[in-house]
Amino acid sequence: MKKVFFSVLAIIALLCSNEASQAQQFKVAVFDLDVMVQAMPGYRSVDSMLQIYEKDSLGAEYEVYQTEYQRLDSTYKADSALVAQGKKSKALLDYTAGERQKMGMNLVYWQQIAQQKSENKRGQLAQPLYEQVANAYKKVLDARKYSLILKPQTYELGFPIDNLFISVAKELKLTELPQQLLYLGDDPDAAKTAPPAGTKPPAGGAKKPN
Predict the structure, then answer these.
(1) DSSP summary character for residue 56
(2) Which of 27, 168, 182, 206 could be disulfide-bonded to 201 (CB atoms 3.0-4.6 Å)?
(3) How confident is residue 133, by pLDDT bands cut at 50, 70 and 90?
(4) Rounded CA separation 109/153 (Å)
(5) Do the Cβ atoms of 189 and 159 come closer than 8 Å?
(6) pLDDT digit string (tens) for 37-81?
């Protein structure tokens, strides 16, 4: 599928380059906002705070569901006997049964509920980092007009492409980037600016991943 995609991409680039009236060269870059945020130094604190949230808040919420389900279950069993004796209304028993079912569903689907709550919390904690990266990304795009931005998982080596992870990192004044983000494409600033400290290729030259 990727080979077909890049074949089409190459044809489009060739057509664009042959158009005499084309005012701008067909330029492709690789970038992903989520991946860049996760590469930020401040993201470590997001992970730490999220672990605390999952252990304390979500753990306590799960215990509340368990306790409430047990209470409602005991109440339902006791009220069932009273309803059979005509000492309590069935409507009240039905209400207790409904509340017990709700608590039971929370326990059954707790993994999905907790995962959604965790992702929402992660988004809240990482919001300032997303804003920083988005602003830097916008400045890079304003300086260079790209025809297409690809995500790392859709990019294959061998097609000429600019690595915006390095450009955005420079805009953010980051001193390090994960090795897997350094050699995704060509750094458009490579001829003008030395790479940030900590992002130098290993001895023997840059080696791109297979």
Answers:
(1) I
(2) 206
(3) very high
(4) 31
(5) no
(6) 999 999 999 999 999 999 999 999 999 999 999 999 999 999 998
Q: Specify the pLDDT at position 158.
A: 61
Instruction: Give residue 157's pLDDT.
Output: 60
Backbone region of residue 18 per phi and psi (left: phi > 0; alpha: psi in -120 to 50; beta: other values): alpha
Nearest to 137 by CA among 32, 39, 40, 24: 32
Rounded to whole angstroms, how far apart are CA atoms 137 and 171?
A: 8
Q: Quick one: which of 125, 139, 106 has its CA closest to 47?
A: 125
Same domain, 47 and 122: yes
Hey, what amino acid is at 52?
Answer: I
- pLDDT at residue 2, as a whole number: 47
> Would 35 be classed as within a structural domain?
no
Please say whether the beta carbons of 155 and 30 come within 8 A: yes
Residue type, 209: P
CA distances from 163 to 8, 29, 92, 202 (A): 21, 6, 65, 18
Number of structural domains (the chain) is: 2
- Range(s) of the domain holding residue 87: 43-126
pTM over 0.90: no
Q: What is the DSSP letter of 186?
A: B
138 inside domain: no
Same domain, residue pair 119 and 55: yes
Which of 67, 92, 126 is the last residue in one of the domains? 126
According to DSSP, residue 39 is labeled: T
